[in-house]
């Protein structure tokens, strides 16, 4: 884990356990989600291509 990892949805640093990341289904850009956003199913927007998903 690196210090620049931030949640794509709320921009919080991903320091907490339970955070996750995956590739954007459209452009494969890395999407990061913190534990809180994952638990609450906060929508994300890909910063690269603008794709929105759950
Ligand atoms: Zn978040
Ligand atoms: Zn994308």
UniProtKB/TrEMBL annotation:
Q: Which residues form the Small zinc finger protein HVO-2753-like zinc-binding pocket domain?
A: 7-50
Q: Which InterPro entries match?
A: HVO_2753-like, HVO_2753-like_ZBP
Q: Name one Pfam family in it.
A: HVO_2753_ZBP
Q: Kindly provide the name given to this protein in its UniProt entry.
A: Zinc finger domain-containing protein
To which species is this protein native? Methanoculleus palmolei
């Amino acid at each position: 884990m690196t210090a620049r990892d931030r949640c794509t949805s709320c921009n919080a640093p991903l320091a907490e356990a339970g955070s996750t990341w995956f590739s954007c289904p459209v452009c494969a850009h890395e999407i990061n989600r913190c534990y809180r956003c994952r638990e609450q199913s906060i929508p994300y927007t890909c910063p690269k291509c603008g794709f929105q998903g759950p």
